[in-house]
Write a structure and sequence with these properties.
alpha/beta; 231 residues; 8 helices; 8 strands; binds zinc ion; binds D-xylitol-5-phosphate
Length: 231
C-alpha cells in the first residue's frame, strides 16, 4: 500500500452487532470505510473484554480493505504472534502496556505486519521520539481506552499537532481514536491526523438492513475533516 495522508475513516467494530460481524464488516466497507478497526481488550489493561485471536481470525476473510488491530492488553508481547497469524495488517500496542515498548515494536515488525504505538490521554508525545524510525502509525487516544461512546478529550488536538511535528516527512500515519464525530473530526484533521477511528458515530442509526445510514455517517465525518484541511 503506497503512503499518503488522505483522510481515512476506520470504523471500530466495537459498535457493530456482535452477533453479525461478517455482514457488519461487509456493510461498512460497501459504504466507504477505508480500514476496519478492531479493539482488543483484556479486562486488565482496560476494564472491558473483547476479542481473542480466534475472533480476529474469523473477521479476516470478511475484510477486503485493511484491518488494524488495537491491542489494549498487558502484557502484549506473548500475544503478538497470535494476532499476526490471525490476519492483522497492522498491530498497535500501547506505550503504557509494559516497560519495553521498543522490544514490542520490534516483535510486531518481526511478524511482517505494520506497527503502531498508542498513547493514552495522559502520556506525553515525547515518549515516541526514539521509536519513530520503526513506526507505521502513532495512535493518539482521545478518550481513556475501554469503551465506545465516550466524550472526546480536547487536549488530544494539541498532542496530534506535536506528533505531526515530530514525524516530519516520515511515512507515519497519525490515527485518532475516541469520541470522533463530524464535530470533532475537523479539529484533529486540521492538527495533522489522517486516520480517524469512529465507533458510535459510524454505527448509530444504521444496521445491516439499513447500511446507507453507515454510508451517510462515514461521509459526514470524512467531509467535515476534509473541509477543515481545505480551509
Ligand atoms: C476505545 C476504543 C475505540 C472506541 C471508539 O477504547 O479504542 O476504538 O471503540 O468508540 P467511539 O468512536 O464510540 O468513541
Ligand atoms: Zn481503538
Amino acid at each position: 500500500m503506497s503512503f499518503d495522508r488522505k483522510i481515512r475513516i476506520a470504523p471500530s467494530i466495537l459498535s457493530a452487532d456482535f452477533a453479525n460481524f461478517g455482514a457488519e464488516i461487509r456493510a461498512i466497507e460497501d459504504q466507504g470505510a477505508d480500514w476496519v478497526h478492531v479493539d482488543v481488550m483484556d479486562g486488565h489493561f482496560v476494564p472491558n473484554l473483547t476479542f481473542g485471536p480466534p475472533a480476529v481470525k474469523a473477521f479476516r476473510p470478511h475484510v477486503k480493505t485493511f484491518m488494524d488491530v488495537h491491542l489494549m492488553i498487558a502484557p502484549v508481547d506473548p500475544y503478538i504472534e497470535a494476532y499476526a497469524e490471525a490476519g492483522a495488517d497492522m498491530i498497535v500496542a500501547h506505550m503504557e502496556a509494559g516497560p519495553h515498548i521498543h522490544r514490542t515494536i520490534q516483535a510486531i515488525r518481526a511478524q511482517g505486519v505494520k506497527a503502531g504505538v498508542s498513547l493514552n490521554p495522559g502520556t506525553p508525545p515525547e515518549s515516541i521520539e526514539y521509536l519513530l524510525d520503526m513506526l507505521d502509525m502513532v495512535l493518539v487516544m482521545s478518550v481513556n481506552p475501554g469503551f465506545g461512546g465516550q466524550k472526546f478529550i480536547p487536549s488530544a488536538v494539541e498532542k496530534v499537532a506535536r506528533v505531526r511535528e515530530m514525524i516530519g516527512d516520515r511515512e507515519i500515519h497519525i490515527q485518532v481514536d475516541g469520541g470522533i464525530t463530524p464535530e470533532t473530526a475537523p479539529l484533529v484533521a486540521a492538527a495533522g491526523a489522517d486516520v480517524l477511528v469512529a465507533g458510535s458515530a459510524v454505527f448509530k442509526g444504521g444496521s445491516v438492513e439499513k447500511p446507507e445510514v453507515y454510508g451517510a455517517n462515514i461521509r459526514a465525518i470524512r467531509e467535515a475533516a476534509e473541509k477543515a484541511l481545505a480551509a
